Amino acid sequence: RMSSRIQINPETAAQKSKTSSPLPCNSPEPAIKPQPKPSDKLNPKTIDPFGVYSRPTAFAAAYAKGGIPCRLVHGSVKHKLQWECLPETVPFDPLLVTLAEGLRETKHPYTFVSKEGFRELLLVEGAAEKAIPLLPRLVPVLKATLAHADDEVFGRGLDALVQLSAVVGPSLNDHLKHLLTNLSRRLMDKKFREEVTVTLQKLEQYGGKAAVAIIKSKIPTYCSISP
């Protein structure tokens, strides 16, 4: 009789084990939290844990793995980058190409890190010697940026192209024709006509007379800034 009284119903035990799981008291958070990404620590508000999963871009993947040696610092007036080491000591290959790929990002902080990182890396001493060998890989990436449907992405592409041209000078001429088709297309848009025209003038300024002939071969209506 004693044994029959203490016999436990299997279903009752299972239910009891479910209700007695070690959830923290008075806490709306789940017991198991997903491991935060490096980007979460930099700007947690930009990450939506309930967003639809999508395959990360090459830049986002590198950023999440800590492959971008700089981080975003939120300032009271404007944001800035803080490098883990001096930019002069960072290998351009593959970082400059990776930052160029990041110009097509549309989410913060990727947009700022890629644009500012690309600009600052090209400002270091000896940038020309480091960037010129990468032109065959950089130009296709910039071409894709200039073909992007997002206006802000296109604008970042224009800025990056001018920055690159200022550093490598006439070395960009051999690759210029690959970029002019997208510039010509946007030149027809009143919204970007002035920006594209200024970009073409900068390409001429840094590329010299040879650049003028290349530009006119793709954009016959272009007016040279040379007398």
In the CATH hierarchy, what is the class? Mainly Alpha
Q: What letter string, H or E per element, gives the SSE order? A: HHHHEEHHHHHHHH
Radius of gyration based on Cα positions: 27 Å
The biggest sheet, with number of strands, parallel, antiparallel or mixed sense and barrel status, is: 2 strands, antiparallel
Strand order of the largest sheet: 1-2
- The third-level CATH topology is Serine Threonine Protein Phosphatase 5, Tetratricopeptide repeat
Secondary-structure-based class equals mainly alpha
Shape: globular
Cα end-to-end separation: 113 Å
Level of helix content? 40-55%
Overall pLDDT metric: 82
Total beta strand runs: 2
Report the CATH architecture. Alpha Horseshoe
Helical segment count: 12
Beta-strand share of residues: under 5%
Low-confidence blocks of residues: 1-6, 16-33, 37-53
Number of domains: 1
Question: In summary, what is this structure?
Answer:
55% of the residues lie in helices and 4% in strands. It is mainly alpha-helical.
Key traits:
Parkin_co-regulated_protein; single chain; Serine Threonine Protein Phosphatase 5, Tetratricopeptide repeat; two-stranded antiparallel ribbon; mainly alpha; disordered N terminus; 227 residues
Topology of this structure?
Elements lengths: L1 H4 L4 H10 L18 H5 L15 H7 L5 E4 L6 E4 L8 H11 L7 H12 L5 H5 L3 H12 L4 H18 L4 H15 L5 H15 L1 H10 L9
Antiparallel strand pairs: 1-2
